[in-house]
Amino acid sequence: MEEKIRVSKLMSAQGLCSRREADAYIERGWVLVDGVAVTELGTRIFPGQKISLAPAANKEQLGLVTLLLNKPIGYVSGQAEQGHRPALDLIKTDSRYSGDRAPQRFAARQLKGMAPAGRLDIDSQGLLVFTQDGRIAKLLIGDNSSIEKEYLVRVKGGLSEKNLELLRHGLSLDGEALRPAKVSWANEDQLRFVLRQGKKRQIRRMCELVGLEVLGLKRVRIGSVVLGDLPEGKWRYLRADERF
Question: Is 133 a catalytic residue?
Answer without folding.
Answer: no
